[in-house]
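This part of the workshop introduces the protein records we will be handling. A record pairs a protein's sequence with a compact description of its fold. Comparing a sequence with its tokens is the quickest way to learn the format. To make this concrete, we reproduce a full record directly below:
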Amino acid sequence: MKLSLNFVFVSITILSLVLFSCEQEKAVTTKLSLAITDSIRIDYLGLLDFMDIQPKSERILFHDRQRGIILMTDFKGNQLLKMEKGGDQKDSYGGFLYSAAKIKESDHISLVSQNGFFEYDAKGNLISHQAFSEDPPLLAGRAAADTELMEHNGLLFQKGLVAWGKYNKTEDEYYNQFQLLVKFDPENGTAERIINLEENSPFRSTGRAYEISEMNPSLTILDDKLLVIAGTDPYLNFYDINSPHQLLNRKRIDYPNYQISEGTDRSKADPKALAFDESAGRTYTLKVYKDYLITSFSSGYETADREAYKAIKNREDYSIFQNKIKNKYQPALLLLNHQGNVV
């Protein structure tokens, strides 16, 4: 089996990944190395997050989260557009972008922020703006515009967690009402939170307390279905993309040697300072690639390391443990078919 992937690198960070596959019912581990085939230099004083790339027009979009600047370059690193619209003017997208901006036709830029839905031309002039009809939800996360936005029939989907609400993390109600995604309707200016945690997920069935990052979802769109994996829960959930987003199937992913987070005893948990289980496995991303689904994930620590991690009593012990396992647990890729079976 060959897997052909084309990567464009705009940073100096390289990750060594492992692709797990199965062949004739026998587990096989195949090394997948990523090599830099090209790079560009961008003369910009600041920290840039990658947002979007358009190979046809050779355009790349970045975001400076410290200054709220959106930067467009070509493939040679030349700066073509620098937008800084964080004020209170009519064309201002404000200081918090909900997701990564997108490059559209004619190098137009579309984005969603707390100020609504925006489209700008290649020179940064406002083309259209639709404000929210009601106050949008206060989504958890940093203003880094690093959340992917997905479009289907004019509607936009992305992860949409809210950290605090009426209930705290030691109460059943917190997990019963917890929702994973947000659905935007640019035409009507609405934002609707959707997709609850499944009743038989560890978050709702174990009676333990979990940090919000342990429920952080990965999602993608396949035809008319939303595919969602909720953090450390190793299940692929298939939902109807149309309201009310009925669950169609829930399938366990065959991650190798996977360790689910055990959460925290609620009687001992501080809901305002709840630590997540670093030793547990989790899914980071979920993508559709031709006839395949690709997840990036971590299986979690081996048993001995997990026991050592849970025995840590102070910062010094934690530092010693981290140095011991440094570079031992690298992210991996798993190749699935569209039904969620390992290829």
Q: What stands out?
A: The longest strand covers residues 280-289.
